[in-house]
Structures are given as C-alpha cells and as structure tokens.
Specification:
mainly beta; globular; Outer membrane phospholipase (ompla), Chain C; 15 strands; two-stranded antiparallel sheet; 1 helix; single chain
C-alpha cells in the first residue's frame, strides 16, 4: 500500500509540474503596455508638429518572475523609465527642459480562453520631476517664465483591469496617490481606454493599430486628459516590435514641474518595444 501511495504521489507531482511553467526574466511581458496611456514604458521619440518641442522616453518594464498554467498567468516585475521634454535648436542641439523619473514594481494576472483574455495590472510607483538647464535663461541668469524648480514627487498605487478579444482590448483604471508634493494636489485619478492591433499581419509583419485613453485627474479640481494614437507596428502585434504612430494629446501637462499648464498638440512618434 505504501508503495502504491508513493507511486501515486510521484505521478501526481509529474502531472502538476507538467501543467505549471515557472520563468525567471522571461523574454516578453505578461501584459503589454496600454498603448495610449501616458505613463507606460517607451523607448523612442515623440516629435510635436508645428513646434520645436519633442519628448524623449528611455525606459522599460520587465517581468522578473512568471508562473503559467494552461490558461492562467501570474507575474511580478519592475518598471524603470524617464520621460523628458526637449527643444530643437540648430546644429543638432536638443536642450532638456524638464525630466521626470518613474520607478516601481508591478504584478500582473491574465486568463485566456479561446480568442479572448482578461486580467489586470497592479503597480506601486514613484515619480519625481525636475527642471533642467534647457529651462534656464543663461543670458539673464534666471529661470524662464519666472518659474523656479520646485519639489514635485508622488508615490501611488495603480490598478488597471482589462478585457481583450480578437486584438481589441478595453481597460479601465484607478490610481490612488498616497504621498504627493505639493500637498495641495488631489490624490485620485481614473482611466478608461482601448487599443486595437490588427492581429493578422499585413505584408508579413505589419500590424495597423488605433488607441484612445481618457483620464480624469484631481488637481484641486477635476480635469480631463485625452490621448489618441494610431499607426503601424512592425513585428509582433502582442510582443516586441517597432511602432510608428501619430499622437494627439489634450489636457494638463504630464511633466511634474509644468503640471499646471494646459497643452494641446499633435505629434509624430517612434517607439521600440522590447
């Protein structure tokens, strides 16, 4: 009897191990970035049309640990990236006006069944913002527009559930800021958006896409940010690739030192998804 029990345990463990796959530093992300959302990992440029400003993003998100069964995946990872506001000058000069840093950890969950999936991403993050020498008027030895660098930082929890079917993904989100400077700013914001990637590639590995994100943010009073993106992705629709896109943004400036400014622009972007 003991021998039969021992053999049964061995067989059971083999079945369980066959159904569960554990990975350390997998090559891809469990949950792909939400395309039109501003606070997502990017590696590329966004050139504003009709202005001398551009955005430079350097950063990435990675899954550090991932556990997968037949149709469920759990992951834990890290985020580390910057987004910078630059100006274009002659002789290929790009003085940096402002830079924001984000770093934190994340957890993801998704479940797949047939041609649909659903899941959620949870992030714990810190952001700090800074003026740089490109915002300093060297001729007059003052900061431009009478503004001086101020302390701006926030630590927040973000929860983003989603549902995806046939390349179309809709999501919502809630962010709670548990510490912020300046302290008078609000502590909650809300997202709603979608992205759609044409999963059947065109000419081998080209995927047209469209995405929209609307965010309600609390800054003493509520205001709305809109972000719309459309373009093509070269590579995998839900994986690594190169993205060329057009973006429209309207709302409060997302750079912390300039959060009180309203901005509206269209831009041409290039982004490398690793």
């Amino acid at each position: 009897m003991l021998k039969k029990i021992f053999i049964f345990i061995i067989i059971l463990c083999s079945i369980i191990n066959g159904q569960v796959k554990t990975e350390i530093f997998p090559d891809d992300l469990t949950i792909q970035p939400f395309t039109a959302n501003i606070l997502e990992p990017k590696l590329g440029f966004l050139f504003q049309l009709g202005k001398n400003e551009l955005r430079l993003d350097i950063g990435n998100s990675i899954d550090v640990y991932r556990n997968t069964t037949d149709n469920e995946t759990y992951s834990f990872g890290a985020d580390l990236f910057t987004y910078s506001l630059l100006e274009r000058e002659s002789d290929f000069h790009f003085p940096v006006v402002a830079i924001d840093y984000l770093f934190g950890v994340n957890a993801g969950y998704k479940k797949t069944a047939g041609n649909y999936e659903y899941g959620a991403r949870l992030r714990f993050s810190h952001i700090s913002a800074h003026f740089v020498d490109g915002y300093f008027d060297k001729d007059n030895n003052v900061w431009r527009n009478g503004l001086e660098p101020k302390v701006y930082s926030r630590e927040f929890i973000e929860f983003m559930p989603y549902y995806k079917m046939n390349g179309f993904r809709i999501y919502t989100g809630f962010t709670y800021v548990y510490h912020i400077d300046p302290k008078q700013l609000g502590k909650d914001s809300y997202n709603l958006g979608f992205d759609y990637f044409y999963s059947n590639s065109v000419f081998g590995a080209i995927h047209p896409f469209a995405a929209y994100d609307i965010k309600l943010i609390n800054m003493n009073e509520y205001s709305v940010n809109h972000s719309i993106s459309c373009g093509v992705k070269f590579g995998k629709a839900a994986g690594k690739g190169l993205i060329l896109y057009l973006n429209y943004f309207s709302g409060n400036n997302f750079h912390g030192e300039l959060y009180f400014n309203k901005v509206e622009y269209s831009a041409l972007g290039i982004n490398l998804e690793l």
